[in-house]
Amino acid sequence: MGALQAFRKLVAIYLGVVGAGTAAQLVLQSFYDSVDASSDGWRIISWLMAIALVLMLATVIHENRAAGHEPGAPVTRSWLTAKAALYATVFFALLFFWNWFAWQWGRGDAAPDVHYWRLIDAGVAVLAISTALRAWRAGPSER
After folding, report:
1. Environment class of residue 60 by beta-carbon count within 10 Å: exposed (0-12), middle (13-18) or buried (19+)?
2. Per-residue pLDDT of the chain (143 residues; tens, 9 = 90+)
3. Is the dihedral of CA 77, 80, 83, 87 positive or negative?
4. Which backbone phi and psi does 73 adopt, to 5 degrees?
5. pTM over 0.90
6. Other CB atoms closer than 10 Å to residue 75's CB: what's the count?
7. 90 vs 9, 56, 63, 118, 139, CA distance in Å?
8. Residue 92 · residue 124 · CB < 8 Å
9. How many angstroms separate the CA atoms of 66 and 108, rounded?
10. DSSP the chain
11. Which residues 6+ apart lie within 8 Å of 88 measured at CB?
């Protein structure tokens, strides 16, 4: 197994763990004894999600380039998958970082919207797991 292949597997494992952890935190947060306990969990998970989103962006940009598409060529499943993953990841990355920066360091009118977090958390969990599965299955011929 080459270094790139091993790195891809590590990224896949990280994304899978963060996706599963985010999903678990989202579902189980109502069982915490206090809001502070839930908030502390989200503070930690948010840092992990930020790293995961950067890795996901790198992965989907790589997939998008590898899928390639010549003008006039028929649309392929790999091209559609790459485009959908790219746009969804960019959408959730923008929403996450906007809300997260406002939550952590916002001043003045920049206030995070709590309702967006549910959408962000669910979306990032699904995208992280799906990106992890694609990265895990990616063959050595993909460059």
Report:
1. buried
2. 688 888 999 999 999 999 999 999 989 887 876 666 667 788 899 999 999 999 999 999 998 888 877 777 788 888 888 899 999 999 999 999 998 888 877 766 666 667 788 999 999 999 999 999 999 988 655 44
3. negative
4. -80, 155
5. no
6. 9
7. 22, 9, 14, 17, 24
8. yes
9. 43
10. --HHHHHHHHHHHHHHHHHHHHHHHHHHGGGSS-HHHHHHHHHHHHHHHHHHHHHHHHHHHHHHHHH---TTSPP-HHHHHHHHHHHHHHHHHHHHHHHHHHHHH--TT----HHHHHHHHHHHHHHHHHHHHHHHH--TT--
11. 123, 127
Amino acid of residue 23: A
Q: Are 55 and 16 in contact (CB under 8 A)?
A: no
Half-sphere exposure of residue 100, counting CA atoms within 13 Å on the CB side? 19
